[in-house]
Design a protein that fits this description.
By secondary structure, the chain is α/β, with parallel strands linked by helices. It folds into 2 domains: 22-43 and 58-263, Rossmann fold; 268-526, Rossmann fold.
Length: 527
């Protein structure tokens, strides 16, 4: 068992309340406005946003919604989401989170309604623009959390990632040129009901008095609206009124859907047929120096025989999977940097040894990568493990990112740069799921050479050809390389990384399977 020099708690920040809240569009009508700020709304998942070279080819689509205080910006954002229907992940990003951190003296003034929160200087515009730029470029970001009751920015942050559409709203969302540069369409909210809405909201949700709201409105809100907010209307593509705005909402939703359709790309078929368009197959050890295959010893051959045998009982299958997983992780550990360490033995003698010199975590591609987790836990003490849920779209066969829950050492970019990640998945066939998993880690700032993909099987003629070209520094540790990735037609087949395919017009399902293979390792292990 390997012990990290600075172990990270297994559940470190995985379940903190700073994680994005996932809701469905059906929840929009019953959640309070404040609860909808900075929210990730998911439907059928995030399709590929990158090409065969591993680089992003399409960014997220950004809608900037501006308007006066309480003009209905958040309501318009929610209406847009409803009108979009079944689309990939949407993020609603509120400018309210980006108020600057205040000194104790400023907090006192804020409680006395003596600070102009509607002035551009009250907003941390560079941070707002940087977070929005990261999300648009399909990178992860951590946005601040602001407490209106305390008039202070909190120490916690909220993690956001994976949006295909970003709706950013705020009174000054179109004021700063940096924000306008990353927006694809501008929406301006125009309403005569702002004061009445502001009084209702601030009294009900923020604990203010009516006199305090009126005093702040006349002293700061109205002058700032006239001087800074209203002039930004000239940058808007669409003016949406505070009521009866269904026509404008439908227009915006239609435009977004067209943009997403234009940015869609077919990916899995190219991965499955990549080897057919490449040079003659070279033996794996020579094809890619970062592919590590376990030595074919009699013991390994015996384990693989038990795992490939379809008559092997489930209990025996689990036993040998755990044995092989442990061996694979032990081999993967050899790829990590170590530093010398001198210890004193019980006999008072010095011993020159080694200690792991790296921050390490695991990320499992659910659920096929689950059988490798026990091996990782056996070898590395107290290792944090996150997960990715990537499945195939039933119609297109494209991989979809449905959910992710990553350790804090990956979610925080400054930590991810120094973190090594064991990426766990059962097989690399077409490699579409593996490709997406690697791209996700890169989006979080994990360097290529810090990613070690641990898997049972690799198809020599499959997606590994594309993966090795796109990510030449990523290491892959496997127990065997099978010769073929064959095409088959089935009526029904689960969509996961062990059998990947698309439907045709006749109702069949084209899949690519590794031969001789081990079958569905996740199903055989868990069912």
């Amino acid at each position: 068992m390997v012990e990290q020099s600075e172990p990270i708690a297994l559940n470190s920040s995985l379940d903190r309340p700073t994680l994005s809240r996932n809701v469905t569009t059906s929840d929009l009508g019953r959640l309070p406005l404040q609860a909808m700020k900075n929210t990730v709304l998911k439907s059928h998942g995030r399709p590929p946003w990158y090409g065969e070279d591993g680089l992003p080819i399409s960014d997220a689509f950004v809608v900037g919604i501006a308007g006066g205080s309480a003009s209905g910006k958040t309501h318009v954002a929610r209406q847009i989401v409803k009108a979009l229907g079944s689309i990939p992940s949407v993020v609603i990003l509120s400018q309210d989170s980006f108020y600057r951190k205040h000194s104790p003296e400023q907090v006192v003034l804020a409680h006395a309604n003596r600070i102009d929160f509607d002035h551009p200087d009250a907003i941390d515009m560079p941070l707002f623009a940087a977070c929005l730029a990261d999300l648009k470029a399909c990178r992860q970001t951590n946005i601040p959390i602001y407490s209106f009751s305390e008039h202070q920015r909190l120490d916690e942050t909220k993690y956001l990632y994976g949006a295909a559409v970003i709706i950013t709203e705020g009174i000054l969302a179109l004021h700063d040129p940096a924000l306008r540069r990353v927006s694809d369409i501008f929406v301006q909210c125009d309403s005569d009901l702002m004061l009445a809405r502001r009084i209702r909201r601030d009294v009900k949700e923020r604990g203010r008095t009516v006199d305090g709201v009126l005093d702040q409105y006349l002293r700061y809100v109205k002058p700032s609206y006239d001087n800074f907010v209203l002039p930004t209307a000239r940058h808007a593509d669409i003016i949406v009124h505070g009521s009866d705005n269904s026509v404008a909402i439908d227009l915006i939703a239609t435009h977004i859907r067209r943009q997403l359709k234009a940015r869609a790309t077919g990916f899995r078929p190219q991965m499955a047929t990549a080897s057919k368009n490449s040079s003659p197959v070279i033996p794996p050890p020579l094809m890619w120096q970062n592919l590590v295959v376990l030595p074919e010893t009699p013991q390994l051959k015996g384990i693989l025989t038990k795992l490939r045998d379809r008559t092997t009982r489930r209990g025996d299958f689990i036993f040998f999977v755990d044995r092989l997983a442990t061996t694979l992780v032990e081999r993967a550990i050899e790829q990590l940097p170590c530093s010398p360490k001198t210890v004193i033995t019980p006999l008072e003698v010095e011993y020159e040894g080694k200690v792991l010199d790296a921050r390490l975590c695991g990320v499992t591609v659910l659920r096929s990568g689950g059988p490798l987790e026990r091996g990782l836990r056996r070898v590395v003490h107290n290792v944090p493990i996150g997960s990715l849920l990537i499945q195939s779209d039933a119609k297109t066969g494209e991989p979809l990112l449905l959910h992710l829950q990553l350790p804090v050492c990956v979610r925080e970019r400054h930590l991810a740069q120094d973190t090594y990640v064991f990426l766990l998945d059962a097989q690399i066939g077409t490699g579409a799921s593996a490709f997406m998993a690697i791209r996700i880690l890169l989006d979080h700032g994990v360097p290529q050479d810090h990613i070690i993909f641990v898997t049972f099987l690799v198809a020599k003629q499959g997606g590994i050809v594309v993966i090795q070209k796109a990510f030449p520094q990523v290491k892959i540790v496997c127990s065997a390389v099978d010769e073929h990735l064959s095409e088959r037609w089935l009526e029904v087949m689960d969509a996961d990384s062990e059998g990947e395919g698309v439907d045709d017009d006749a109702g069949g399902r084209k899949v690519w399977v590794i031969e001789p293979g081990m079958g569905h390792i996740g199903d055989r292990y868990y069912l």
